[in-house]
Structures are given as C-alpha cells and as structure tokens.
Specification:
It is built from eight helices and 17 strands. The chain is an alpha/beta fold. It folds into two domains: 200 residues, 3-Layer(aba) Sandwich (Rossmann fold); 101 residues, Methionyl-tRNA Fmet Formyltransferase, Chain A, domain 2. The strands form four sheets. It has a seven-stranded mixed sheet. β15 and β16 form a beta hairpin. α1 runs parallel beside α6 and α5 packs antiparallel against α7. The model has no long low-confidence stretch (mean pLDDT 96).
C-alpha cells in the first residue's frame, strides 16, 4: 500500500519505524516545521523528520498543511492512505479527500474517552486506572471517526505523561501494523463512537502546572505526574520558583493552611527521599524531589537540610 505518514514528536517514532520496516511503500513523511529550542533558540527538527532523513525519505514541513500548495504536493504523491500519529495540525476536508482509502489515526486513548491533543495527560489527571490506544478512521470532527481497533494498558502509580506516552507509542505502532492488512482487505467493520461518552483532552498550557494547594493531595499528586516532563508542576518558595518533580499523597489529618510545609508525620516512610510534607485541601503531599530555579534537583530530604526555616513556611505565597 502506498502511504504518506504524518507525525511529529517522539510519540510518532515507533509507528514510523514500523512502517519503514514494512512492505508498504512510504511515499513521504509530513511533519511540523523546525522550531527554535534551547538557550540559543536554534532551529530544531521534529523527531519524525530526523528519523525520516536517516532513511532517505522525502520530508514535507508545511506551516499550514491545509494550504493549497501543501494539498497540491499531497495530491502529487497520490497516497492510497495517510497514517497519522501525533501530527499537530487539524486536518480539513480537502486534505481528507486526497487518499483513495482514507486516513487512519493512532490515538493514545480508549476512545471516545479523551479526544484531543493530550490524552495521556488527561488520563492521569482524571485518575483513570487504565488507558490505551485506538486506531480510527479520520473524519472532520476531532478524534470522532469510527474505530477499527482498541487495546488497553494499565496506568501505574509511578507513570508520568512521559512514561505513559512512551508505552502507548509502542502499543499504538503494534496495533496499527496488525490493523492495516485486515482494514485494507475489507475484513474490519468500523465501529461508530458513542459521542455521549466522549471527554476532551485539551492541549496543555504552561499555566496549567501551577499548583493549587487547596485541592486534595491526590489531585496535586496527579498533576505532578501529568505535567512531567512538561511543563512541570510548580509553586513558589519564599517568592522564588520551586518545581515539584516527584511526590506522593499522604492520607493524614492536619490543621495547617493549604501550602504549609510541615515535618513528615511519625511513621511515614521516607525511604524514597521524601523530606517533608505540604498541606493540601485534604491530606498532604510528601515531596520526594524538587528543584529551585537555577539549582540542581534535590530530594525532599536534601532540600529540607539546605533551606533554613522551610518547616512552617507556606508554598505558593
């Protein structure tokens, strides 16, 4: 089958690798434009571009994939199908009409739950016990097309968005390669989604990661995991930025105002480096690893030893 692949970040790589190694003809890779990154703001190519060029594949990087010039280039490629995995732009109907057999998407959730740009983040924030991947046909509505296959994956208490996406990217690549041949031969009957069960997983903004200590500790803990590796859950200590890298919730009673730092209660295990607790709207958060601006990451115990007057201070003021 003649395929155009559309994808950009690391999540796309396992699917692209499997397509490169397959018997399918990969006509081109469409990915996002290079973006400035790092202190020098030098242009950095998307991971999918780097992999494509390593294998001598044609790469297209349209700023607007729906523009007429981009559509003309895609028509010239004459793909039978387009496979999409975390591409990063909304596809409009003229593009959807190009491939003869339609477009397939590798989506990192068990649809119709968590439609949108950040499904792994949304699953952690919601406290879901499991998530998974869905292979679906793309229609004009966001992640609303009929489903061809789904496969579930348990969410571990230690999972972050980074670790969960890494697992889901591999699972999605496997499921796509199992699905492609039976779909192309007409052996799969697509299953419509139940829109009444749909939830939305919007793009993550940097401001989302500011910790609200008035919510329950379990919710703060989920935010710490959900916003790793970006934008990283953060608060302030004495008016200066403090990033919370690892933490765990404590089901303890306290009379402290939310955000107040207090010593770990007697009997609470600190073998993971937790050095102190922070009061929340319900329960408390044991801080396992944190980082001050311009400093290296420290365990909670190291931070406690290095910051005079930490106990009794209030974070986020």
């Amino acid at each position: 089958m003649r395929i155009v692949f559309m994808g950009s970040p690391a999540f796309a790589l396992p699917t692209l690798e499997r397509l490169i190694a397959s018997e399918h003809e990969l006509a081109a890779v469409v990915t996002q434009p290079d973006q400035p990154a790092g202190r020098g703001r030098r242009l950095r190519p998307p991971p999918a571009k780097e992999l494509a060029l390593e294998h001598g594949l044609s790469v297209l990087q349209p700023p607007n994939v729906n523009a007429e010039a981009s559509l003309a280039a895609l028509r010239e490629l004459a793909p039978e199908t387009v496979v999409v995995a975390a591409y990063g732009q909304i596809l409009k109907q003229p593009l959807l009409d190009i491939p003869r057999r339609g477009l397939l998407n590798v989506h990192a959730s068990l649809l119709p739950r968590h439609r949108g740009a950040a499904p792994a983040t949304a699953a952690i924030l919601a406290g879901d016990a499991e998530t998974g991947v869905t292979i679906l046909e793309i229609v004009l509505a966001l992640d609303a097309g009929p489903m061809l296959a789904r496969r579930s994956l348990a969410i571990d208490d230690a999972d972050t968005t980074g670790s969960l996406n890494a697992k889901l990217s591999q699972l999605g690549a496997e499921l796509l390669m199992e699905t492609l041949p039976v779909w192309s031969s007409g052996e799969i009957t697509p299953v419509p989604q139940d829109d009444a069960l749909a939830t939305h997983a919007p793009s993550v903004q940097a401001s989302d990661a500011v910790i609200d200590w008035s919510v329950p500790a379990v919710d703060v803990w989920r935010r710490v995991r959900a916003y790793a590796p970006w934008p990283v859950a953060r608060t302030t200590l004495a008016g200066q930025p403090l990033r919370i890298l690892k933490a765990r919730p404590l089901d303890v009673a306290h009379a402290e105002q939310p955000g107040t730092v207090f010593a770990l209660p007697e009997g609470v295990d600190n073998g993971d480096g937790a050095g102190f607790a922070v009061s929340c709207g319900a329960g408390a958060l044991a801080v396992v690893e944190a980082q001050r601006a311009g400093k290296r990451a420290l365990t909670g115990a190291e931070l406690l030893r290095g910051v005079r007057g930490l106990i009794g201070s209030r974070l986020g003021e």
